[in-house]
Specification:
Layout: H1 14-30, H2 39-49, H3 53-65, H4 88-101, H5 110-122, H6 138-146, H7 150-157, H8 160-163, E1 181-188, E2 193-194, E3 201-203, E4 206-212, E5 217-224, H9 230-241, H10 245-251, E6 265-268, H11 272-275, H12 277-285, E7 289-292, H13 302-314, H14 326-329, H15 334-337, H16 342-357, H17 369-380, H18 390-396, E8 400-404, E9 410-412, E10 415-418, E11 429-434, E12 441-446, E13 449-455, H19 464-519, H20 544-547
Parallel strand pairs: 1-6, 6-7
Antiparallel strand pairs: 1-4, 2-3, 4-5, 8-11, 9-10, 10-13, 11-12, 12-13
């Protein structure tokens, strides 16, 4: 059965309400909310109002259930609002067809859905085949569709973020104080950036924000062209923990950004990088509780979602802004208008963060996030432990994996890495972290510290993604050569080799057959006849005199 909106309370006229108000003092005086209704009470009300005993008992039951004057007002005649005189079997069929036709991800409009449902109920070659007098009209079916709550429509036809606006959100996700709760999320910027050399279009960047809930300050951020990953999440968290002065100095941005510090809870959604073991282990090692929320609507991370909406709205000021949808762009060519590089965009973003920090915030009672941060930071004391090392912190938030040490070291894809400390750990598993920005080295966690292991062989100092892209390009060239005649040549060579094998077998069989013929028969079936002996002719000797001259002994010239 489809959930429908509850029927509205019947509207009472002003005259009926006045009648209920006139009866209310008498019922309040004589009828108790608990206990039995006695004959004396009914008689007293009957004498005061002139109502009959049956009417008084009916009104008394309504009054005891809801002791207000409105419950004593006369009800309007006719069927209650929202009721339908539809056969239960037909109503069940309508609900089933509604689930099939209307409540889906891309639903038709209600008039068309009602027309389709009516047709399937009426068709004599269909599944239902109800008689015409049992089937409600299309308008009635359309009214039935209108009674379905918006939350049911949203659940069937909308995504989680859009559906969240149609659902109840009781409760509150609270922060218990300064640097207690930080929310993190990622968004694709609605602007196209260009490369720094030829100023050609590159694409839209990814932006990661971390907001400190108590002060509503942007504690950290990260900008990249790469999709959200463990590496980029770690860089964003490290950005929130560490002071921003080195970044501001490197980019040459003259703004105030004093927000940093070690926080207690990190609230994030169910993205794969947030759930990874290495990311959670790095958070716990630094005293941060990785509070990954359960799957659900976007309102569970409402603070960061609202911040992202505010910051993304500012991107429309930039050249190359794409707008929120195609209709907003119309004939605007965002690719042709793109003009900013990633570094220029990051400098602009830092200025916008400074603007945000110095703008009054409604959730802070009109205070600015910068004001709130300054007040709370003065009470808090050190924001970061003195022993915190930036390089060590970045390494902790790198992606990692447990790998086995072999005789050639650690193998990652086709590359091998070695360090003398691995000599005693052959056959053991160790935790290995790698930086996506280089393939020259990785880090092994040995006895609580990181050891840098160099790659074996000659490899360029490039990003891992660039190296894998280059290898993929080489493999593509190989596949192209195969498709462009190499595969046919391979097939011909295979066929020639197999033909050579076949001919060798034929020649070998023929040679063996000839050898068998030469050898003759076996002794077991040999011909036992005695062969006839040849008679030798007697030798006739001549004397020397009969030989004549001895010229036959002379050597002829």
């Amino acid at each position: 059965m489809i959930e429908r909106m509850p029927s509205p309370a019947p509207k009472r006229s002003l005259k009926s309400l006045e009648a209920g108000l006139a009866l209310f003092p008498h019922f309040r005086r004589h009828i108790s909310v608990s206990g039995p209704v006695t004959a004396a009470q009914i008689a007293a009300i009957c004498e005061a109002t002139g109502l009959k005993e049956r009417q008084i008992r009916t009104l008394a039951a309504r009054y005891r259930a809801h002791p207000v004057a409105e419950s004593l007002a006369p009800k309007p005649r006719g069927p209650p609002p929202g009721s339908h005189r539809i056969d239960p079997v037909v109503r069940s069929a309508i609900d089933a067809l509604t689930n099939k036709i209307a409540l889906k991800m891309v639903p038709p409009n209600r008039a068309e859905a009602a027309r389709q449902i009516w047709g399937l109920l009426h068709a004599d070659n269909g599944e239902h085949r109800f008689s015409a007098d049992l089937i409600p009209s299309e308008k009635t079916i359309e009214r039935l569709l209108a009674e379905i709550p918006s939350s049911v429509w949203a659940k069937a036809s909308m995504g989680s973020k859009t559906r969240s606006a149609h659902e109840a959100h009781p409760g509150e996700y609270r922060s218990d104080g300064f640097l207690d709760l930080v929310q993190m999320d990622h968004t694709r910027g609605d602007v196209i950036l260009v490369d720094s050399l030829r100023r050609e279009e590159l694409g839209r960047p990814w932006i990661t924000f971390l907001i400190e809930i108590w002060t509503r300050a942007i504690l950290g951020y990260y900008v990249s062209f790469g999709d959200p990953s463990i590496f980029r999440c770690g860089r964003a968290v490290a950005s929130a923990l560490l002071p921003k002065e080195p970044v501001l100095e490197h980019l040459g941005v003259d703004v105030s950004y004093p927000m940093f510090g070690l926080f207690r809870r990190l609230h994030a959604d169910q993205a794969k990088p947030h759930r990874s073991e290495s990311f959670r282990r790095a958070c716990v090692r630094n005293g941060i509780d990785p509070d990954v929320r359960k799957p659900g609507p976007a309102h569970l991370g409402g603070h960061i979602e609202r911040l992202i909406g505010t910051m993304v709205g500012k991107l429309r000021l930039l050249p190359g802004a794409t707008g929120s949808n195609v209709s907003a762009r119309d004939d605007y060519d965002a690719e042709a208008e793109a003009a900013m590089t990633l570094a220029e965009f990051e400098r602009w973003l830092l200025c916008q963060i400074a603007v945000y920090h110095h703008t009054p915030h409604s959730a802070l009672g009109g205070l600015c996030p910068a004001q709130m941060w300054e007040r709370e930071a003065a009470r808090h004391g050190p924001l970061l432990p003195v022993s915190c090392n930036a390089d060590e912190l970045f390494r902790q938030f790198l992606p990692s994996k447990s790998l086995t040490v072999h005789s050639r070291g650690i193998q990652i894809k086709h590359r091998h890495y070695w360090h003398p400390a691995l000599g005693k750990r052959i056959g053991q598993k160790i935790e290995v972290s790698w930086d996506e920005r280089t393939i020259q080295h990785v880090y092994a966690e040995l006895e609580g510290s990181f050891v840098q292991m160099a790659v074996i062989g000659q490899y360029p100092d490039v990003w891992e993604a660039d190296w894998e892209a280059a290898r993929a390009k080489v493999r593509a060239l190989g596949r192209g050569y195969q498709a462009d005649g190499g595969r046919a040549a391979t097939a011909r060579a295979i066929a020639a080799a197999n033909q050579e094998i076949h001919q060798a077998r034929v020649r070998t069989k023929e040679a063996r057959r000839r050898a068998k013929r030469r050898e003759g028969e076996g002794l077991t079936l040999a011909d036992l006849r005695t062969p006839e002996k040849l008679l030798k002719q007697p030798v006739q000797w001549k004397s020397v005199g009969e030989l004549g001259e001895d010229t036959w002994l002379k050597v002829r010239p």
